[in-house]
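Q: Convert this sequence to structure tokens.
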Amino acid sequence: MNSPFAINASTNLGTSQFFNIEKLTLPEGKSKVEISIPHVKGLKVVVSNASKSFMFRAVFAQKKISCMIGKYPDISLEQAINIVIQYQHSLNKGINPLEEKKRVKNLPTLKDFFYKTYLPLAKLNKKSWKDDISRFKNHIEATLGAIQINIITAAMLSDLMLEIKGENRSNATVNRSRALLSSMFNLAFEREVIDLSPMSRVKKFVEQNHIERYLSDDELQRLMQILTNHKVHGIENQIIVGIVEMLLLTGARKGEVLNLKWSDLDENNHLWKLNENKSGKPRIIQLNSEAQLIIRRMSRKYPYVFANPATALPYNDIRKTFQNILEAAQIENFRIHDLRHNFASMAVNNGCDIYVVQHLLGHASPTTTQRYAHLRQDTLRNASEMLAGRINSARPTL
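A:
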């Protein structure tokens, strides 16, 4: 270690780059001395018999402000300089760096922000807020929940995405967690909790979208045969059969059909009024004659049209009966939600404008509808032949 030397007014310490903390000692007869670091405005070294510490001093709003930064060597000279540079940046912006330090210190952890700030708003604006709770608890909370929100970096979030993916989950599942975090950090930015959302630098995983499944003409005929004569095939639950038919005929979502109440129906005008759909907006479904017949077959004993007689409430799960229907119809790899896809596909292939299909499905944007607008090969072939015929009609006769 270098030999210490006494400090006096004429001592030239040089630039901060060559400032040697180890050489600082107390002048004779002094118990404490405060020394400015050359070329670093506001940074001081306080030397006492017990320790050497870094201090910041400045003037804000015509008042002196100061704070201890930390002891040497717990904090190096370089670290102290960087801290003071940040303080000076705050002063240049008209911000009291000590108040800002206090504010930042009191910022919430990611867990606190989720439960105290994000979730109450989500409950007001999102029907799927319970899914957010599940995703946060299952995929995010254990890894990042205890970390202060302003400390979380894009690298930490990218690592979390890889961690979720590493648990043998699909890219779509990872992206749903990413979307939740993006919403949280955007809200934190709007509330001025953070200066920038780190999620802007976290890339989405490429999703291998499920190939949308549609019924062929033969499959549709077999399905209708089973639905019409379901008891012959050992399928006794007429109510669930009615639910499947309703899904097939209206393109409505499963949850919308399961929760349909008699009070939602305007039977005189054949309308089904949905006060809230998936997007949280009201819409009206025009009931076709076949859907009306299905509804008339249901008991009016309960508030719900397709109520489970055992509970008077909607069915929790209809998958078992639906699978029995598919097996009887010899249809494979078909999901309940594919009935909605099939409705959209049939509408497009039978000449419905995409704007009409958008409103039949209750989509806020035609972009979403476009995903379901599957055109069968014969529809494309017919369109191509029609165009070729129009072009050929302009060919001169030889």
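The mean pLDDT is 85.
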